[in-house]
Amino acid sequence: MDDQSFLARRLDRAAAPLAIGDVLVLMAFLTAGTLSHRPAEFLVNNPTYLLGVWAPFLIGWFLVSPLVGAYAAGAAETAKSSVPLVVRSWIPAAAIGFVLRA
């Protein structure tokens, strides 16, 4: 019998740099999207606004990505293994983010 928890099997410490990179890329995309709707001056005058944009989508990402195994051992070894995991993570994570942001 495997004594590892479900979450322990889904999270590999070696994938930590990948997770950090994913969070930074997600924040960059969300910031770029915000800048397409709001001027940079608005963000300078309202420095916490981006936190309200980032939070729902990061919550969605942190909920979904471990469930689909985006950071499991071997998940990022090849594009063939990582691309389906990214797609299965992004779609529901974005949906959760949109619902939380609404």
From TrEMBL:
It comes from the Archaea. Keywords: Membrane, Transmembrane, Transmembrane helix. The chain crosses the membrane at residues 14-33, 53-73. Pfam families: DUF3054 (PF11255). This is DUF3054 domain-containing protein.
